[in-house]
Hints:
By secondary structure, the chain is of the alpha/beta class. It folds into 2 domains: 15-114, Rossmann fold (3-Layer(aba) Sandwich), CATH 3.40.50.720; 151-213. Helices cover 48% and strands 14% of the residues. The chain is built from 8 helices and 7 strands; from the N terminus they run E-H-E-H-E-E-H-E-E-E-H-H-H-H-H. The strands form 2 sheets. It has a 5-stranded parallel β-sheet with strand order 3-2-1-4-5, sandwiched between helices. Strands 6-7 form a two-stranded antiparallel sheet.
Amino acid sequence: MENLYPAFINLSGKSCLVVGGGKVSERKVQSLLESKACVTLVSPEITESLKELHTSGKITYIPEKYSSPHIEGVFLVICATDIKEVNQTVFSDAREKNILVNVVDKPELCNFYVPSQLKRGDLSIAISTHGRSPALARKIRKELTAQFGDEYAQLLEILGSKREELMTRCNSTEKRGEILKKVVNSDVLEVLRSKGRKETEKYIEDIMSKNLEER
């Protein structure tokens, strides 16, 4: 199998197409909406949850069988049907137009794979098996879920704020990198877990101030 290039794609405002109206499509549509994509759904029939999304104006619904014109102007397409002919047609149309395409559970009909993902605020950890074993990817995600708790979201928020502050206090990129490395390699996570946000911010400030004073 080819070596894959890992990337996180900004779908905000991008036109994305989902083909199929079942439970799998529900999950795919919801994931795209969370990424602020503009979602169009094509399927003769859809679930009640998808109908609600359409009624509320969150997605565009075309109650038709898929045909090639549906893919015009689309940035990304996900096909979630169990109809072999439809899957192959969607893939062929997307490939012809150089559009990102994922046919669910058909690695050979994909030019990108959707990884199993763990999110903690702005922290995203993605696990891919190159489409070979989604079940293994889910198992690994479950193991990581136990390791990376909600405190990581809060820590990342604090670190982001302190990084911006440090950029106004230190002109040296190298120096800033050294200080931030000391922060993340310190006991900052344990401080957050045991003493809370306020003490954590003070703890980080102490590290920053001490190292800024050093010449």
